């Protein structure tokens, strides 16, 4: 899927005007290029933005519980944060969440507000996994933690009020890569049958050399340098080499048959554009089901950072529409 | 997810936040964003509903702080608030003839004040820019945009201020007395005679204007003494336009027309109908005459004019004579 960098690459596509304006407000608080030295400060900064349990409860609309469940064999337990809509009487679909943060930051509360908005539209239980972060815990720790949490969730669905036939895995950015990787593991090991995979601007290609990665270097959010930082934290010297597992970098997978229906979205002005478009194409080529949205002028995570912009509203609506179609809600 | 308003509130209001607000609206202006986007920016950055109203232009835009339009989910009270009159206590700023409100009582803090000022200015420039589509474009700008002696960048700037994009298709229209109008899309109500220039990009308006003035010379009052079209399109003149570029004395055929006109009040309208219609039968219909009456009239013209207008060559000669007579008025 690599696009040869010897082919001419034009200038970066322009940002959507409203998103460009929003970047003026966000810009200095969020540099494009992140390096390994910046990881501790990033983690501290991210923790400040965390939603509290009270925020998550949304005035009683959700019950917030935590479960420590077995991790991968020989590894520590994994914490699952479980948000159950109040008043559900029948088993609900579940959204199994793998959070974003470039493999290096974030926790199982990161980005949950968006999932709660979905759960209001499409009643479902949210299960968010606290996986170990790189670089302290390189591959396969993060994705194996995600898979272990999924296995437990499916096995204990009845207790959680979840319909085990309707578990959708979802994640954004690195979380999208982990969701795709977890879906590959579940397929290959005959694990829980996922009902869908929501891969939101997913980070799936450690080679970091697509046309969009080259185009967007130094621009927008999570540029080529930041991507290098994230992948190197996860894979060390193996990054970009011949021996990277598809579970770490799903773009490496050559057989995308037998996967649950995929929803993939990405901005046209972000590093991940071409790897995400290629992933959707590879799923179709394998005879699978995928819905792909490329939002014009979107930078990485535009919908999170400028949720009120017109293009962000459309992107959010497309996700809910897909969930409704998938789950028949 | 952090709202932009929250991000701004975290900054030093007098310096950092104000600069971000300025940069936000500057970016929107650069990309020629529309009113909806500007009002949404005001709502997003101030964190409260914003509205823009211009009674004369029937503009009424309201955006909530979440970026959506309309009354939102809050119910009837909110709906009434959205459709009711602006509260006099709200913060507001003029935007040309329009007014921009933030739906919160004043006095405005530093961020609100800057939002009002910059959003108001951005809205005003959009309203100014689109004034060319309104009833009364600035006559000085219109004259400038058709002036062949003005440098092209100056003309294009004037065209932009009149609301034209470089790719728009625009015509110049020459009116009696030397006045110029511009036509983009649907035609304006023109009373009186008009020459219509060919459509083209705004940069070509001087050529369109020159052609329009030539076309104007081929128009007529559409009266018995001056029959013919009140509106002539330069596109349809063909080789006739060349006649306007030569400065000749009236030719004998024109004097013959004048002599003929003196013999009967119906003469010129009859000859014009014969020249302009496809057949004598069609000419009779236009004149509301019986076919044989028209034949009688044309028999009468033969000795006065000296040529037979029923012959193909005689008809061309008549057409040229009528055209020259208009040019020499």
UniProtKB/TrEMBL annotation, chain B:
Protein name: Helix-turn-helix domain-containing protein
Every PucR C-terminal helix-turn-helix domain range: 268-323
Superkingdom of source: Bacteria
Pfam families with a match to the protein in the record: HTH_30 (PF13556)
Cited InterPro entries: PucR_C-HTH_dom (IPR025736), PucR_C-HTH_sf (IPR042070)
């Amino acid at each position: 899927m690599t696009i040869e960098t010897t082919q001419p690459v034009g200038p970066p596509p322009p940002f959507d005007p409203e998103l460009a304006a929003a970047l003026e407000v966000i810009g200095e608080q969020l540099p494009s290029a992140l390096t390994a030295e910046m990881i501790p400060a990033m983690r501290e900064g991210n923790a400040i933005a965390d939603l509290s349990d009270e925020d998550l409860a949304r005035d009683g609309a959700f019950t917030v519980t935590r479960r420590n469940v077995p991790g991968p064999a020989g590894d520590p337990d994994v914490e699952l944060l479980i948000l159950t809509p109040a008043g559900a009487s029948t088993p609900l679909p579940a959204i199994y969440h793998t959070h974003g943060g470039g493999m290096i930051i974030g926790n199982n509360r990161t980005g949950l507000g968006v999932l709660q908005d979905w759960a209001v539209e499409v009643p479902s239980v949210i299960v968010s996994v606290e996986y170990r972060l790189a670089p302290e815990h390189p591959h396969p720790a993060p994705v194996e933690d995600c898979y272990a949490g999924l296995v437990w969730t499916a096995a204990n669905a009845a207790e959680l009020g979840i319909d085990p036939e309707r578990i959708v895995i979802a994640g954004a950015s690195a979380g999208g890569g982990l969701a795709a990787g977890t879906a590959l593991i579940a397929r290959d090991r005959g694990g829980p049958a996922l009902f869908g995979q929501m891969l939101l601007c997913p980070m799936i290609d450690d080679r970091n050399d697509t046309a969009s990665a080259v185009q967007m270097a130094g621009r927008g959010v999570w540029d080529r340098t930041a991507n290098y930082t994230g992948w190197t934290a996860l894979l060390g010297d193996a990054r970009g080499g011949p021996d990277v597992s598809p579970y770490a970098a799903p773009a490496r997978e050559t057989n995308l048959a037998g996967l649950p229906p995929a929803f993939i979205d990405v901005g046209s002005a972000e590093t991940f554009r071409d790897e995400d478009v290629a992933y959707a194409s590879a799923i179709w080529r394998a005879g699978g089901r995928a819905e792909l949205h490329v939002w014009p002028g979107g930078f990485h995570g535009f919908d999170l950072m400028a949720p009120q912009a017109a293009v962000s509203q459309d992107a959010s609506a497309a996700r809910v529409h897909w969930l409704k179609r998938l789950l028949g809600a | 997810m952090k709202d932009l308003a929250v991000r701004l509130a975290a900054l030093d209001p007098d310096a950092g936040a104000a600069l971000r607000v300025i940069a936000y609206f500057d970016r929107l202006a650069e990309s020629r964003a529309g009113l909806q986007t500007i009002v949404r920016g005001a709502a997003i950055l101030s964190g409260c509903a914003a509205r823009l109203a211009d009674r004369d232009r029937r503009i009424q835009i309201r955006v909530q702080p979440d970026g959506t339009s309309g009354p939102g989910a809050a119910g009837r009270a909110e709906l009434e608030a959205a459709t009711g009159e602006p509260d006099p206590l709200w913060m507001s700023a003029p935007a040309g003839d329009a007014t921009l409100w933030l739906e919160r009582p004043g006095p405005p803090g530093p961020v609100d004040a800057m939002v009002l000022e910059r959003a108001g200015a951005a809205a005003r420039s959009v309203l100014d820019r689109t004034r060319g589509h309104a009833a009364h474009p600035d006559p000085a700008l219109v004259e400038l945009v058709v002036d062949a002696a003005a440098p092209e960048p100056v003309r294009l700037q004037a065209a932009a201020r009149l609301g034209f994009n470089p790719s728009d298709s625009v015509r110049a229209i020459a009116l009696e007395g030397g006045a110029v109008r511009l036509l983009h899309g649907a035609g304006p109500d023109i009373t009186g005679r008009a020459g219509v220039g060919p459509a083209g990009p705004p940069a070509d308006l001087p050529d369109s204007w020159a052609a329009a003035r030539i076309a104007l010379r081929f128009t007529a009052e559409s009266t018995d003494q001056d029959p013919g079209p009140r509106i002539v399109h330069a596109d349809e003149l063909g080789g006739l336009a060349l006649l306007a570029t030569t400065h000749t004395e009236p030719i004998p055929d024109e004097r013959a027309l004048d002599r003929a006109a003196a013999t009967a009040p119906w003469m010129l309208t009859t000859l014009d109908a014969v020249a302009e219609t496809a057949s004598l039968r069609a000419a009779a219909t236009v004149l509301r005459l019986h076919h044989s009456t028209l034949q009688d009239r044309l028999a009468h013209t033969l000795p006065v004019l000296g040529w037979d207008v029923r012959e193909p060559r005689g008809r061309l000669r008549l057409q040229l004579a009528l055209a020259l007579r208009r040019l020499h008025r």
